[in-house]
User: What shape does this take?
Amino acid sequence: MHDPEFEKQVQKKLEELRFDPSGAVWAKVEQEMKKDKRRRPLLWIYLLTGMLLGTGSWFLVGSYKNYKQTNTKTAETGTKVLPENNDEKKKSADNQIVESTNDNPIHQQKTPEQEEDPKGNTGRVHALMAGHKSITKNNTTIKPQTSSLQKKSLDDKQSVPLFQGKNDEIEEKIKRKKENPDPVSPIARNIAADSMKTSKTDLGDNENTTADTQVSKEHLADQINDKKEVLVTRNNKATDSQRNKTAFVKKIISRKSTSLKMGLTAGGGFSDVSKMMSGFQSPAGTAGNNASTGPSFIQKGISFYAGAFLEKLFSKTISLSAGLNYHYYSTKIRTGKTDDSIIYVPAYNFSTASNPVPASISRPSYYASGTTNSYINVYHFLELPVWMTFQLKKSDKLFLAWQAGLSFSYLINTNALQFDPSSQTYYKDNSLFNKTQVNLSTGLTIGFYHKKSLLEIGPEIQYGTTNMLHGYTKNSQHVFYGGLKFSIEPWKK
Amino acid sequence: MLRNYKILTFLENFGCNDLYVIIVSMCSNMDHYGLVKDCLKGKSAAQRELYNYFAQPMLGVCYRYTKSMNDAEDVLQEGFIKVFKNLHQYKAEGELGAWIRRIMVNTAINYLKSASRYQYDLAFAESGLHPVSDDDPEVLLNAKDLADLIRQLPAGYQTIFNLHAVEGYSHVEIGKILGINEGTSRSQYARARALLISWIKKNSQDNKTEFYARPRI
Assistant: This one.
């Protein structure tokens, strides 16, 4: 067995073995890691876009369903005239069928089946409101009755079988109503009034015979039909108003329950970075000693954004909105000539207690300081804004609102340059940026309705409270945006 | 690490060495934990900080296993890529440095196996006989000189010596790692050790007349 003393000595000695790796090693490691990183933001973008589209589709489908249901229910409730007794229930049921044909001009024309039917007694009724469902009722065919003129133009063969099965019943009912009119029932009042009118006008000489109940079958049928028609007209008016009321109530209910609205927003203006690019300071404090021209001043650049949002109404004047935007910022700086060769600039202070000397890192491309070229720093952000809207003033067509909120943004990519005072060069290093930012924003908007859409326009400003650069760079850059905001709520009813 | 620097310097200057050591170890672990968390979040700055903290000692490890600095840097680069890609597997119970070192050693062995220039030396000849040296010379060489001597060994000897003498692997483990018998590992190690001791002795004698003498195999 060996004496482990030798191994211990070797171990102890070799523990002290250290070498400075060349800058190319980290450059390659970083490059490799960035390949992996590039996939991550894309994944987030796809995920967020998917979520947004999903939410939008869900909202649209939901609102469409609500709209459809409201319409269907309104149509249903429009046909259901609340009867006051059983007799009127039957009447209104009959009227429903007749009314359904009256609502649609298509039913003013006879179907080929009806025209071809020699008997005219097939028991079919085409009711459009029920989606062209055939209704068979006591083997009685109810022909479409559109107007009194058309009705009168129908021959007896067509009109008589229309109420053939119920003529006796209806006759008795009408008689009963005339004898004992219910003063409370408006339908009964209508019948009474109509019977008086028709007896005076249409029936003329038959007044006495009607009173004596000695009328012929044909006249009675005509009379019944006329009365039913008038009744249908009256009931139609009643059901129309009822339908309108129901639709209005439904609309209010649906608006209250689905007060979450979706809209599109966009804006354009200028962006700026609030502090001059000053470069890094080395831990030894030598940075800037050999500075000749210094870093460029940052000039304003174009900025714009677009996205979608959801708005929740809390009251008539206050609402909360949240959305997802893509935001483009840009600034302009002056640089010298560009060079693609690799240079080594001191990485900012990653020194440790044991290793206080900063390592060198490679820069694959750089720009010399100077003023010959202009360079546009571009920042691509994905933003999640949340803001409150307070309505300040409102007139018939316009309203003025104040908006204030904050947004969480993620820096997707940038080509922004950093200045290194020791080498007097600009270089790209995205790892120096804080990827996540918090911005504060405020603005005024003027809103107005245009073609069932709510449009809003107004000035807004946004300030990034988070330093765009990491703290260890000892440099401070805050993004600023000012511009006009546009938003539209296209699905507002 | 950086934020504790001033406090630690203060303690060191005022002679609180024990406290300094305790705080250094505590802060080191705490900082590593935070650093790993930031690296896992994908923060480039944290990754660079981790790299800068461990790159120097890890290059020393890679240097011992390879024959040139370029190869050592290749291993270091490959090793750090593995570290960052597998950092989620690191459990905070162990020391981060040891975990990274293990990755570096494995990367170095894989590198040696894949590089054609090392393959001849790594084809270990089966041999049950090995010289036994009871010598226990005092190692007066500095770390770099000692490492240079180890690098003069054939790649097979060099690897086994590093794994056993420096990393502390048993011959069974070495056999599994390199795909050889335990006995082969033992004999190769014994030869490597004997060679190295003879060079160290020769080096000590030569140092009396000449500061540094390069041994010949």
User: Anything to note?
Assistant: Residues 259-489 of chain A form a domain with the Porin fold (CATH 2.40.160.20). The mean pLDDT of chain A is 66. The first strand of chain A starts at residue 126 and ends at 127. The CA atoms of residues 178 and 217 of chain A lie 18 Å apart.
